[in-house]
Amino acid sequence: xxxxxxxxxxxxxxxxxxxxxxxxxxxxxxxxxxxxxxxxxxxxxxxxxxxxxxxxxxxxxxxxxxxxxxxxxxxxxxxxxxxxxxxxxxxxxxxxxxxxxxxxxxxxxxxxxxxxxxxxxxxxxxxxxxxxxxxxxxxxxxxxxxxxxxxxxxxxxxxxxxxxxxxxxxxxxxxxxxxxxxxxxxxxxxxxxxxxxxxxxxxxxxxxxxxxxxxxxxxxxxxxxxxxxxxxxxxxxxxxxxxxxxxxxxxxxxxxxxxxxxxxxxxxxxxxxxxxxxxxxxxxxxxxxxxxxxxxxxxxxxxxxxxxxxxxxxxxxxxxxxxxxxxxxxxxxxxxxxxxxxxxxxxxxxxxxxxxxxxxxxxxxxxxxxxxxxxxxx
Length: 378
Ligand code: AOF
Ligand code: ZN
What we know:
CATH class of the largest domain: Alpha Beta
Order of helices and strands: HEEHEHEHEHHEEHEHEHEHEHEHEEEE
Low-confidence stretches: none
Helix content: 25-40%
Strand content: 15-25%
Distance between the termini: 25 Å
CATH superfamily of the largest domain: Dihydrofolate Reductase, subunit A
Radius of gyration: 22 Å
Number of helices: 12
Mean pLDDT: 92
Largest sheet: 9 strands, mixed
CATH architecture of the largest domain: 3-Layer(aba) Sandwich
Bound molecules: ligand AOF, zinc ion
Structural class: alpha/beta
Shape: elongated
């Protein structure tokens, strides 16, 4: 779609304005164009209810008659929180619809395009869905795989160490990396860490990005035997922003009650063959409540657990110009790998300076449903 592409790029830019504000729904942007001029535009924000198409059509008013609609996602044809956007498009008298990608939501999945075409509207779908998929990896993962998109984050020394064995030094990465890490938190629905990291660092796991999220990210701890101290900062703030703790089936009931009394949601899950918790089960529970993306912030054991289970999709690794040597924790713990042959091979997509650190970003393997998408812009 050559002439269309700059309008579509505008729709994509609009969609991104919904970052952190659309969950559990996708980010969507739409532009109404008549005689080459933009006469309406909009994007989705969950609390404002209306889908992007409807916002754009309303802003165009009568100018939408005979106009083209550019929308980053196929228009919906189902009755959900709102009536189908296909009905609104037909009622507005739109002539052609350009859409970025077919909706992965089984409730739509091509049905919106079919409905419009049957009504005589020309529908043109982008040849390359990648830029459109990349802004909604989380949503697509949840509706097609039943689990959130998982990003692993770590700040390491140049020799791949995340903390001295003697105890934590809080900051390995520099100021710029830390600011970037808050943007990472901003674009994920949940932030997860292991109990080892909580005991060592007593983190808050909140998002301190300049723009607020519509809902604070859900804070998650993998804690098989429920060692989370009732006086930790996470527990103390559980009433302000939710905290979930995943524990094993035999976690002490008294610890469960103590945490629940402080407003922490304790979620018992099954144990995996390797003795750790069944992380896939934790992710399913999260998808069930609409969590589309999880940022895993360590430490070594937790990162390794996600990699071993094949549940890691994306990585953001910051490397600082420091060497810690062997009396330090590695970025990933036991991966069950003894030979180079068996080690996970990552697909590095971008390396950039965040002085004095470097950020490595990319993907783990190819997720089902196609090649990994492009990285989100920032
Ligand atoms: C959105 N915003 O701009 C578009 C969506 O739960 P509902 O009724 O809001 O429906 C959500 C579904 O509608 C969503 O999963 C996606 O398939 C479709 N399109 N949703 O929230 C939008 N265009
Ligand atoms: Zn819709």
